[in-house]
Amino acid sequence: MKQPLGVILAGGQATRMGGGDKGLLPLKGGTLLSSVIARLAPQVATVALNANGDPVRFAHLDLPVLPDSIEGFVGPLAGVLAGLDWAAAQGADTIVTAAADTPFFPCDLVPQLLLASEGMDHPLALAATPDAERGKARHPTFGIWPVALRDDLRAALAGGLRKVVLWTDQHGGRTAMFPDEAAFFNVNTPEDLARAEAMQ
Ligand SMILES: Nc1nc2c(ncn2[C@@H]2O[C@H](COP(=O)(O)OP(=O)(O)OP(=O)(O)O)[C@@H](O)[C@H]2O)c(=O)[nH]1
């Protein structure tokens, strides 16, 4: 199988941060996005950014910027669909997504997702970490997604589906377990950003 393409999910409204682009916030001498790019790029064939609005604000990153093809803010599945449409145009089979607000995700994200989805006709898996109450907590913005299911996803979104795990469960999606919950620490508020600055 060909190496997955990488898609960074940077859509959304960042209401808890007071609006704007969380990815462009400063972190450890760079930005949240530069941390995410540095982690994802070595694991995939090439990287694109899913974000809405004027792409000029990301010009310095020199990445393709993919807007949602669905009107309104309908959640991360819209970004996954934008990524799959882009990957189809590149002749790719799969994408791996990572969220722009999660700067410390595992450096073995892609190999573990590939392992978890081994043998599937259409590789589909989400990252997960151990959870005391539920056994595991899935991280719906970190996954491997097959281009072959993009029209199914488009139809599901048009029909009102918004919940990522509902769609992945419907398609036999698997999970890749990662031991460290802290790796998926995501920045939603100014307090989270201060905490991320102090981490690692
Ligand atoms: N493409 C796309 N991505 C989204 C959308 N809403 C959220 N996301 C992405 O989904 C992930 C989780 O986002 P959230 O933290 O739940 O939402 P947010 O808009 O970033 O922030 P809040 O408004 O504070 O909830 C992030 O990677 C976002 O970029 C959307 O409408 N479109």
UniProtKB/TrEMBL annotation:
Subcellular location(s) per record: Cytoplasm
Residues bound to GTP: 9-11, 22, 50, 68, 101
Name of the top EC class for this enzyme: transferase
Ranges in a coiled coil: none
Keyword Cytoplasm: yes
Enzyme Commission identifier(s): 2.7.7.77
Main subcellular location: cytoplasm
Domain MobA-like NTP transferase span(s) in chain numbering: 6-166
Reaction equation(s) it catalyzes: Mo-molybdopterin + GTP + H(+) = Mo-molybdopterin guanine dinucleotide + diphosphate
CC cofactor: Mg(2+)
CDD domains in alphabetical order: MobA (cd02503)
One Gene Ontology term of the molecular function aspect: GTP binding
Protein family: Belongs to the MobA family.
Domain notes: The N-terminal domain determines nucleotide recognition and specific binding, while the C-terminal domain determines the specific binding to the target protein.
Protein name as annotated: Molybdenum cofactor guanylyltransferase
Organism whose genome encodes this protein: Sulfitobacter brevis
The organism's taxonomic lineage, starting at the top: Bacteria, Pseudomonadati, Pseudomonadota, Alphaproteobacteria, Rhodobacterales
